[in-house]
Amino acid sequence: MLTQSATLATNERIQALRANGVPVTHLAFGEAGLPVAPEIAAALAAAAGRNSYGPTAGIPELRAAAAGYFDRRGLPTAPGQIVAGPGSKPLLHALLSVLPGDVVLPRPSWVSYAAQASLLGKEVVWVPVPEGSGGVPDPALLGPALVAARARGLRPGILVLTLPDNPTGALAGASTVRAVCEIAAEHGLMVISDEIYRDLAHEPGSVLSPAEIIPERTVVTTGLSKATALGGWRLGVCRLPEAELTARLIGVASEIWSNPTTPVQVAAAYVLAEPEPVRAFVAAGLGLHRAVVRAAYETVLAAGAGCPAPGGGFYLYPDLEAARGNASSRADRDAAGSGAGLGGAADLAELLLERYRIGVLPGSAFGDDPRGLRFRLATSLLYGDTDEQRWTALRSTDP
Ligand code: PLP
């Protein structure tokens, strides 16, 4: 049975602790933790009267704005190549359902890819990420893993990449992305490039999309949840390479969500057109996230832990093997509920929550037991978490 997603379940557990007056430092949920930009809120409010169902693929102004968004990132796009959905998560599920074959995932990778594959009756072929990186399979291991999977009777057909990555926070470099794309093409794989953290790349312009290398084989997904901090609005878009696949995706969408919420689409069209207030908000948010991630990265390295270098987004994925050894030599092991000592990252995450009131996610949530722990670096760690403190921080940041 598929249980509730680890990220959502841990978030709910932490909210329940907080509701009972237990203070928890919440580093477990993939949310930007920024307020809504007033201009974006105004765009939504102005569209409240749009109460009709709309076209399944999205309203024309949103599809045109999303095409412009991709154009500006070096991916020439026609509005007809865009399909919008209620978040990129359901879009990813629908894409996995219309693309044939089993799913190849980097280990570790975002919680929902493997769960969605399993909901669709697809097998997962796990391929470790390159040492010290994330979001893509190690090119040296990918080809042999595909051959071995076929020998076991699997049919690898879809490769999912995350650029920049969740959970590692790393951004795969151009030569690695190129090498992975070449192998994907050689083996006839379609690539889903999840670029939801693209605008939070710590060096703007540092993301090389597979759509630039193997355009006919790549679907790109993104959404409003991260750089513009609108996760609860539920709006994602994808850019498809050809009309037949687009038609199949629209077919699935039409039977599941009909259309994304119309007023949110109007506001999303405003966001994706990237007028100056949106650009300023995204740049300020990036400045904050980069500052908090870098400060935490230095602390992690100073503590002697290994950690992929952060390249974008708001995550770190340290390997706390040393801390695990220390903890299991103290009374902490009891707090972790494991009399024999801490067994892995899952025990350590439990210990951090129960004893130290710090919520993080273990690598097992990302297919990667027993190594890493994922920390979402909330900007509130440095700047406070009232809306007023967040605005003060956003206004003072030097992007
Ligand atoms: N992809 C990745 C890598 C994510 O981290 C998330 C959210 O945490 C999503 C997709 C889903 O985003 P949404 O459905 O809010 O667009």
Automatic annotation (TrEMBL):
One GO BP annotation is: amino acid metabolic process
Q: Which Pfam families match?
A: Aminotran_1_2 (PF00155)
* Organism superkingdom: Bacteria
Show the stretches that span the lipid bilayer.
none
The record's keywords, sorted A to Z, are: Aminotransferase, Pyridoxal phosphate, Transferase
| Matching InterPro entries | Aminotransferase_I/II_large, AspAT/PAT-like, NHTrfase_class1_PyrdxlP-BS, PyrdxlP-dep_Trfase, PyrdxlP-dep_Trfase_major, PyrdxlP-dep_Trfase_small
- Principal EC category: transferase
According to its UniProt record, which cofactors does this protein need? pyridoxal 5'-phosphate
EC number per UniProt: 2.6.1.-
Query: What are this entry's molecular-function GO terms?
Result: pyridoxal phosphate binding; transaminase activity
Residue ranges of domain Aminotransferase class I/classII large in the record = 36-378
Question: Which family is this sequence assigned to?
Answer: Belongs to the class-I pyridoxal-phosphate-dependent aminotransferase family.
Xref: PANTHER family: ASPARTATE AMINOTRANSFERASE
Descriptive protein name: Aminotransferase
Q: What is the scientific name of the source organism?
A: Crossiella cryophila
